[in-house]
Design a protein that fits this description.
Structural class: mainly alpha
Number of helices: 2
Strand content: under 5%
Length: about 100
């Protein structure tokens, strides 16, 4: 594929990935909050809120990192970025879709 036809960086998709990551992080934080609130553990409110905020932020960060890495891989001109580990057949194994 010529370099001119490769897609560029799309910030909107990164923001959508951020929103999805924040939603998943919030769901995980709610799940952890319910678990902690139903245990006999005595955790101060400030520490619990800080922990839950970190979980939500980590979810958003994970979404941004995954989408940014995916876009950089797709737009790369280096063929090594487009050779996936599951399509290698150097060990003599047959990849899916191939016949011996």
């Amino acid at each position: 594929m010529p370099p001119s036809s490769r897609p560029g960086f799309n910030g909107t998709r990164v923001l959508v990935a951020l929103a999805i990551g924040l939603l998943l992080g919030a769901a995980m934080a709610w799940f952890l909050f319910v678990i902690v609130s139903h245990t006999p553990a005595d955790v101060s409110d400030n520490r619990l809120q800080a922990f839950l905020l970190m979980v939500v932020i980590c979810g958003g960060l994970a979404g941004v990192v995954i989408e940014t890495t995916r876009q950089l891989q797709v737009s790369s001109t280096d063929p090594a970025y487009h050779h996936h580990w599951w399509s290698r057949s150097s060990s003599g194994r047959v990849s899916r879709g191939q016949k011996r």
